[in-house]
Amino acid sequence: xxxxxxxxxxxxxxxxxxxxxxxxxxxxxxxxxxxxxxxxxxxxxxxxxxxxxxxxxxxxxxxxxxxxxxxxxxxxxxxxxxxxxxxxxxxxxxxxxxxxxxxxxxxxxxxxxxxxxxxxxxxxxxxxxxxxxxxxxxxxxxxxxxxxxxxxxxxxxxxxxxxxxxxxxxxxxxxxxxxxxxxxxxxxxxxxxxxxxxxxxxxxxxxxxxxxxxxxxxxxxxxxxxxxxxxxxxxxxxxxxxxxxxxxxxxxxxxxxxxxxxxxxxxxxxxxxxxxxxxxxxxxxxxxxxxxxxxxxxxxxxxxxxxxxxxxxxxxxxxxxxxxxxxxxxxxxxxxxxxx
Length: 340
Fold this sequence. Notes:
Blueprint: H1 35-39, E1 43-44, E2 56-59, E3 63-64, E4 67-68, E5 71-77, E6 81-87, H2 103-110, E7 114-117, E8 121-124, E9 127-130, E10 134-136, E11 139-142, E12 160-165, E13 172-178, E14 184-187, E15 212-213, E16 218-221, E17 225-228, E18 231-232, E19 257-262, E20 267-273, H3 287-296, E21 301-304, E22 313-315, E23 318-319, E24 333-339
């Protein structure tokens, strides 16, 4: 007969248990991809937008240079993303019956994970008009408006800003003029127009500088050009972006703003800031302030886009800022990001 018992005490015949209980693995937080942006006081809020895998979203510090601020940027490596432009089809400023759409409507149409409002536009006589360049997959859908006037007697012919990318090239800024025919000119400097001066000549192949043919793969217009080759240029006066004349202070007042820029190491940055008191004390930015923020973020070329009530950045279909019209404004064009 064999009997066994257990007294509850460890047996002297066996060694103590020498295998430690298995502990759950330590999950390290992902490494911050852009620590220089964090060092400026911006907060990575990408986790607020589940499913976003190729772009990082940052929220501004609560104040920039003493001004209460609400701004967001989308930061995307161009090796991993493509950018494109969706727009009404108005390639010759003749107007179209194409519908203006809110960013929400563009999202419903495309599902693009990041959408920023695009260039200037206007509506008149039952038609919608692009007033800014819009190019998608080398197809021109809009050009920068090629005339300006206060009294419609004295006419000016401004060159206006564009952010573009040629096939196989890197994004950059420039100024364009469409002649009204086959010629679409690109310049490395703007015509130095001003409402306080007589109009300059109509731009051509050699004025205001030697022109090249403007035939990009992707492009969005707007203005002013904020940064070029690492320098703040802020060419709002030359681009005549103050519609009521020399006393118009809009460029130097704070408003909601949108912009697009690029860094030397190939990061595309989409920028938006809230304004007009949608959050108490948040007025927005001047063109100059917007330029300095984009430069601090590492951009060397940057273009201001349509702002005010048009300013809106969607991430995964969600608004970032409070739009100043109270609801999203239907717009003629948007910039989208998509994974390669």
